[in-house]
Amino acid sequence: VSHARFVDPVATTTRTANLADADAISELTRQLGYSADATEMRSRLERLLVRNDTAVWVAEDASHAVLGWLQVTIGDSVESGRRAEIVGLVVADNARRRGVGRSLVAVAEEWAAGRGVSVIGVRSNLTRVESHAFYQTLGYAHTKSQAVYRKALC
Ligand SMILES: CC(C)(COP(=O)(O)OP(=O)(O)OC[C@H]1O[C@@H](n2cnc3c(N)ncnc32)[C@H](O)[C@@H]1OP(=O)(O)O)[C@@H](O)C(=O)NCCC(=O)NCCS
User: How far is the CA of 14 from the centre of ligand 1 (A)?
Assistant: First the structure.
């Protein structure tokens, strides 16, 4: 008789991020194509984790390896009032199609709704083909496509 404890290999949990996640988050962020070393990521998290209008979550497996992260921020504008936005989301290449992204989005929606925000949105590059199928499956409607402009200030 085996007494080995059964560990579901695909069991994942979501929890709020902390500064100790900087390395894992920067590694996943590089997978998304953005450069972010761990030191820079740590200072970004130091700024973001204390904000009331922002939450960052990670998903981890049974051995506490970080499989994905999500940032949601509540914005406010003259045009539209308060709206939540998924500012970033990435799931590790080797952990996709296991419901990790779905779980992270679910906690973001619950967090925003709990703050009285009635709409959540996300902007995703048209080149991220998988993300469009993903968001539409989760009930997000494609409402517009935009050009994005940027100018260096120094
Ligand atoms: C988009 C992304 C976050 C999805 O994460 P994920 O953990 O793989 O998604 P889930 O397993 O929770 O998928 C939920 C559902 O979305 C749909 N979906 C997800 N990925 C899909 C794909 N590549 N093609 C078609 N449908 C897809 C499916 O209906 C899926 O359910 P199913 O697997 O039971 O069929 C992930 O692919 C990723 O990190 N991509 C690169 C970064 C990115 O595009 N981020 C979003 C920019 S804001």
Answer: 16
- Which residue has a Cα nearest atom 18 of ligand 1? 134
Distance (angstroms) between ligand 1 centre and the Cα of 129 equals 10
Distance 21 CA to ligand 1 centre (A): 22
- Per-residue CA distances from 114 to 57, 62, 109, 119 (Å): 16, 28, 8, 12
Using alpha carbons, select from 138, 145, 8, 126 the residue that is nearest to residue 70. 138
pLDDT per residue over 65-111, tens digit each?
A: 999 999 999 999 999 999 999 999 999 999 999 999 999 999 999 99
Containing H/E element for 72? strand 66-77
